[in-house]
Amino acid sequence: MSQEQVVDTQRATESQCSIWSTMESQPIEPIVWGRLYGKNVHIKSLDLCVENFTVGRAEDNNLTLNEGNVPHKIWCRVSNKHFEISRERGDLSKPVYIQDFSRNGTFLNGEIIGKNKKRILQDDDVISIIRADCKAFVFKDLGPNNSSGIPDEICNNYFISAKLGSGACGVVRLVYNRRTCIKYAMKQVKKNILSECATITNAKNSSKVLNEALIMKELEHPCVIKMHDIVDKPDSVYMILEFMKGGDLLTRIVSKKRLSERISKLFFYQMCHAVKYLHDKGITHRDLKPDNVLLDTHDDETLLKVSDFGLSKFVNNDSVLKTLCGTPLYVAPEILLNSGRGSYTKKVDIWSLGVVLFTCLSGTLPFSEDYGTPVAEQIKKGDFSFTHSAWRSVSQVAKTLIMEMLTVNYNQRPNIDYILRHKWLKDPEVVRLGRNLMKEQMTKSAAPEPNSDNENFLEPPVKRRRC
Ligand SMILES: Nc1ncnc2c1ncn2[C@@H]1O[C@H](COP(=O)(O)OP(=O)(O)OP(=O)(O)O)[C@@H](O)[C@H]1O
């Protein structure tokens, strides 16, 4: 192999990036988001800066494999477009995908990817072509390392991306499964926070938290956030949760000022089904509030899922504990009367659902410091009103339902079965829509995951002689 045949890294990089330098004013430096180092391919290194970097036999690839840079017996079996490496807009917070387009195989760390299938690349991954043992490239990810402090078993299976937000008990990050490329939300709950609260919440220890989390993993309902995985470490519990791209209900209400009666009903219908499912399983949520209701899409008519249940009794994001620090809002009066101690019935969730419905329909809170008296006092007396102008356009039957749900005496407060049978929810159009959203979700969950091994993607390799 002569010196000229070795691809000149510098020249290759310049030509791949020329599209950027043609911009007339203020040429933007392309972001080099990854690098390929040649192994059996005679290439020293190649900077990756275009969004989609293709490799194959054809001349129009970003890297053309020819007899000059790969051994002849391998080259003859290379496809025109063998594989592609891409990073959306070169954005370093996004994962790097490798997609196999070949007939004779692209392999990642010795395992075939499969025609048209994608995987997420990780730093130091080895890409082979034609045969698992024909190592062609080593990939280097030049993006920031978001995985520090996160256990290897998570980083090896998931690409750790941007922070979605943080709550009282830890950080939530967007992660991507490297094999299926599916997005998830990874919630890290720090155990020191759990144990701090444990002293307040009757010494529930972290093994109990894990047990509770394992129960949550078994739950399966279209309106309940699915927990896909849990990793228990000495410092933290990591939960891999279904990712909801539509944001939370609080943000939705704030952005719309308030929700129409129809959309409020659609959302409430789904929340009630989630709560019925949990109650039938003997689980009380205890921390229902719009922040804990996540939406599937940004559309008005969308599926929602209730999140953050079960663990609320262990961690200090529990409204019960917040209540004791001075911000109740969604908490039932019996919890306040017991100063957050003692056990409560499922009726605490009915109260919170009533507050959530009030908030959806009016964009205001039934109980608030702004009303001049301490919130806890308002709640204990069930002191709220429909005086805000927003209520003028809301039906009387909706208001009656709220009044029933916000009954101070929990023995007289209805249960979830009653709510689901309520006249306000007997709206065929909304019920049909809600059922369809849930049904679609159930069909999606039952379908095999993309890129999963139970799809028959392993075509037998074809030996093609082109030379
Ligand atoms: N499964 C998810 N999919 C998408 N975003 C999520 C998911 N879970 C949480 N988030 C987002 O992450 C952020 C933090 O969530 P987290 O549940 O930790 O806190 P919170 O419920 O907002 O507050 P707190 O923990 O104090 O109750 C929120 O903005 C939420 O919208």
Automatic annotation (TrEMBL):
Sequence ranges assigned to domain FHA in this UniProt record: 53-113
What is the residue range of the signal peptide feature? none
Q: Which CDD domains match?
A: FHA_CHK2 (cd22666)
Q: Which InterPro entries match?
A: FHA_dom, Kinase-like_dom_sf, Prot_kinase_dom, Ser/Thr_kinase_AS, SMAD_FHA_dom_sf
Could you tell me which residue ranges the Protein kinase domain spans? 158-425
Organism superkingdom: Eukaryota
**Keywords carried by this UniProt record:** ATP-binding, Nucleotide-binding
Q: What are the start and end residues of every segment in region (Disordered)?
A: 441-467
By its UniProt entry, which Pfam families does this protein fall under?
FHA (PF00498), Pkinase (PF00069)
UniProt GO molecular function? ATP binding; protein kinase activity
Can you say what this protein is called? Ovarian-specific serine/threonine-protein kinase Lok
What organism is listed for this UniProt entry? Hermetia illucens (Black soldier fly)
